[in-house]
Amino acid sequence: MTESPEALRDQALLNVGATSKFAPLPLGEAADMGQAADGTPLFDPQIFDSSEFARNPYPYYRLLRDHHPVYHDKLHNAYYVTRFADITECYFDDAGFNTIPKGSSSGVLGNTQLELSGVEHRRRRNLYGQHLVGKSLTHRVPSIKRLAREMIDNWSIESAPGSDGRTTIELGAAFANEFPIRVVCEVLGFPPEARGDFYYWYNSMMSGLGGSATHKQGVEARQHLEDYVGQLVAERRVTPTWLHDDDGNPISKDIITKLCETKVDGDYLSTEEITSNIALVVGGGGETTRGAIMHLWYLLLTHPEQFAALKNDDSLWDQAFHETLRHSTPIGGQPRHNTHDLSLHGVDIPAGSLINMVDFSANHDERIFSEPEAFNIFRDDLYSGKILRSGYAKEGRCSHMAFGVGPHLCPGAWISQQEAVEGSKALLAAMPDVALDLDKMQRDSISGEPRDIGISSIRELWLTFADGS
Amino acid sequence: MARKPADQPLPSNGVAITRRSTQNSAYRTYEVHQRERVGQSTEKIKPIALIRDDQLVSPFDNLAILREHYPCYRDWLGNAYWLTRFEDVTSVFADRANFRVPTRAENCGLTQASDTSASIPAHTVWANLIDNALPNIISDALKNLRSSDKPDVTIDYTLYITTELQRLALDIPEQQRDWFSTTLWHIQRADSWQVEVAERGTAAIEELIAQLSNVNPSSAGVSNTATDKLPITYSLRTACPAATPEDLLATVLGFEARTLHGGLANLCQALLADDNARSTARSNNQGFKIACLETLRHAPPVPTVHCYARHEVERFGRLLPEGALIRLSALAANRDPQQFDCPNEFLANRSDICHREARGQFRADGLATGLSLGMGLPSKHPAEPEDRPRSLYALTRDAIVRSATALFDEFEDITLQADHDSRPRSLAMFEAHIAWSLPVKLRN
Prior knowledge:
Number of domains of chain B: 1
Radius of gyration of chain A: 23 Å
Low-confidence stretches of chain A: none
CATH class of chain B: Mainly Alpha
Distance between the termini of chain B: 75 Å
Order of helices and strands of chain B: EHEEHEHHHHHEEHHHHHEEEEHEEHEEEE
Helix content of chain A: 40-55%
Number of strands of chain A: 16
Radius of gyration of chain B: 23 Å
Largest interface: A-B, 89 and 83 residues
Largest sheet of chain B: 5 strands, mixed
Oligomer: heterodimer
Strand order of the largest sheet of chain B: 2-3-10-7-4
Low-confidence stretches of chain B: 1-7
């Protein structure tokens, strides 16, 4: 240490401006953030706030997994756990790692089972979770197919082919943004005329999470939802309504009716509680599936040989769905809150700390998945069978972490898979000779290729296809 | 609640998760964060705006928004609560039953060391240094400044003075002054969230501790034969013989030379940048003292202090969960218009500020004082106690006032280099807010 304080000061003053110091690098390459005395690469938490990280996250998570499997980020007052095995262990330890998020959802959505643990979590989760699995789900599949067809028929009418005989659509606007919402809307028991508002609620609440500039709109949309639900609840408390299959046979009461009839601690749920649960279903039911459909199509169209194989073998859709969620996980992870002082990988974490379990990183853990950055629907280390709450880790295959695992596994995981797969099958039938419309896709600032998915979901996916009529 | 027995085999991840406490579990089954009603949203400011680079120099506009609209702001990005009103900041800072304020040594990673800066022997050493050693140090610093090719008040004067005080306290030989100066620079940033900076700080701490382990107590002291008292010492090791090297360093950090250095630099900046303020300060024998207090209000060197909720506690209409990080912003509180008129102006003769150092509470005669949270809670002892030196606040103030007075007496025509942005700034978010660069012309 020979520098003078003056030189050190000058150097420190030069470093001011650090939040813009992460210039774009080729994908897969991490910025040099310094080294510890023993040569260990250091990690600058400002990277999390940079556009470079959103664009090119994988090398940074690899750095964390390899060198800082538990990373203490003092700037954001959080810890990051990034290895698959560690996250799995924590997810199963519901008592040691509370789900009470110090995140941002409850301010907008309201208090839901996301904030609960143990028996209370289980009880509330089952209020609607039972409608999204097993026989209930099997009964819902025909409606999912019907809703997909309805949407596609409607877009076919609205979208005229160009002079070259090809039609161009933006998949999000045309299908993926709204399709999951329509499914959720129906399962909940919302009347079809509420769909327009439903999209507003979903969009505003999801974009309003956190203290963002759109936070106000999120809170307002939540209130608007409650005002609407208040009327429905009043009706359903008197007159229960049912879900029917496509043949008109009753399947079960819709979720709102069930919530109206449910007692917790000997008392009926309040409108506020019901609305919070609905808000969660609205938010949770939309984003993962929307992202899955968009990413699935993007990845298939940028891997034409795999797409060709899939077109010839219908049974590959489930593999493609799971590999998509592993490769480009729509929801980055889940926050946890340790209930005891603990030490993991030599890092002491005081009780009450925010620990971000980074599913995104777990799904790219080379300790579990070989060549994790590669999209490969044929990979033999990914489990693609029925989604299990216990997860799957046998004979060299593991389930991915996109839906979490353990008691807090996403209750919409099963229906999300049905939506993405059935919706995509319907899309494939409606889009002969489909391809990316490269002229309209956003480009990567370095490679010039269509922009990679990165850490945030694709918002626009432009497709062109031949007139199939 | 289920707990794993201690002898349970390794979990499936193959790495032990060691639980250190079995009591005061933070486990709960009810909700902490409540839904926000319409009108409670915080759209006037984005959390990222609070940590952008422009905040290093000028965070005051954003802090004013928090103070005005969101006095207990939930910062989702930083996972913290911001308190910005004077009364709120002081009430939480003083509430040690519910909130834990880590010491500077703890923040720098010296978790096992004892900060004895408040003990009478250690405190006496610091008082000795301020009262007896400071004049000579100032004299040397003035020579430094005069002889420098590119005189810079911050580097050649304020930093030199504070480094020398600490060097003497730790018995570091004069020949190692340059090494110590560099080492101390790194140590002062060991609590940074910037990992590279923190790493260097940690390495510097280790280096200094190794050095302290080899240093013999200095025989340097001032023999006070006129009053036939024991020789006074500048050496912490002599005064606290049982202290380990780690304790000695923790104690020096506890003296909060950051505030001394930053307060002096920021005062010099204010007076160099404003001739009227300088004239006011020099106009009477209280001028520099009031200007010093105003500096600590207007530009407190320690911008933010972090504290943690010891347990779940309800404050400001919110349930703050155990472990919640609360950022107490002195920069915001010290410019609270509820406490100070024209709070954004530097008034060298400000009358609506307490003209004594904080004692017992952060106000006197109904007037608020500028918060210097780095120095901890105000002393509860008498202003001139019989059994101990005066408070750290008083010592720091006196050191700043003496040093500033000497500088402006020695160089009456000192001016800042033209076109130089000398404003206080933090080198990184949450770090000391100091006028780091004050290049001057000593004579016109």
